[in-house]
Amino acid sequence: MRTAKWCGITCLQLFAAILCIICLGALPRLFKGLQIDLIGFWNTIVFIGGKLLQPWEITYGFRDSRKLFPQIWIHYLETMFVFISAFLLSLLIAYVLVVWVLQRSQSKQRMWNGIFVVLESIPDILIILLSQLLVVIIFQKTGFMPVKLAGIGEERAHLLPIICLTLPTTLLFIKLLLLRFREELEKDYSIFAKSKGLSLRH
After folding, report:
1. Tens of pLDDT, residues 69-80
2. Is 87 in contact with 169 (CB distance < 8 Å)?
3. CB 174 within 8 A of CB 94
4. Segment 145-150 mean pLDDT
5. What is the pTM of this model?
């Protein structure tokens, strides 16, 4: 009974969300000059709803209209490639840094903790802007473009988005891994291993 009720509520919420999106898409047609055009608004809602029932016929663009499918899957795969690459790279970097930091002395660990806290306080958008600015400065000074800032046509810019996503994610993983590793190091089996002369490398 609860499952059926939950499914009903979820379907109702989904229908309401789709209806709101359709109404927002048709909102510019509601106004015709200084007057309200309810008939045009309703016709636009019906038109958009009909297009959603035939997603393979949806097009985008003004002069050179293109079909949304399968073009959207190309951009989806590119986006997922950037996300997954940034995730795996940040996880690898965070793991290596955490293991390296935990092998340092207590004073150096505190120093690195302070550095990580300062880096975490920098807004993500500022990191993105600074990384782009750094690429532009390098190009102005040397004439060498280390990474592409943007892609035109068939060109794709993957490296800079991966770097921009990797930096804040790495700091998050470092924080989580440090907390987790230190909890493990305080457990009985870790203390017993230390008493036997085993280091963190073991």
Report:
1. 777 788 788 889
2. yes
3. yes
4. 67
5. 0.65
Q: Got the DSSP string for 41-73?
A: HHHHHHHHHHHHHSGGG-EE-SSS-EEHHHHHH
Q: Does the N-terminal peptide bond of residue 161 adopt cis geometry, omega within 30 degrees of 0?
A: no
Strand-strand pairing, 31-32 and 35-36: antiparallel
Task: Give the model confidence (pLDDT) of 170-180 as tens digits.
Answer: 988 998 888 88
CB 148 within 8 A of CB 155: yes
Q: What percent of the chain has pLDDT over 70?
A: 84
Contact, 166 vs 89, CB < 8 A?
A: yes
Q: HSE of 79 in the Cβ direction (CA atoms, 13 Å)?
A: 6
DSSP 150: -
- pLDDT confidence of residue 95: 92
All structural domains of the chain with their residue ranges: 2-53, 70-195
Q: Which residues, 6+ apart, have CB-to-CB distance to 198 below 8 Å? A: none
Where is pLDDT greater, at 187 or 25? 25
**In the beta sheet, which residues pair with residue 44?**
none
**DSSP annotation string for 105-142:** -HHHHHHHHHHHHHHHTS-HHHHHHHHHHHHHHHHHHH
Picking from 135, 159, 145, 146, the residue whose alpha carbon sits closest to that of residue 78 is 159
Provide φ and ψ at 158, rounded to 5°. Answer: -110, -40
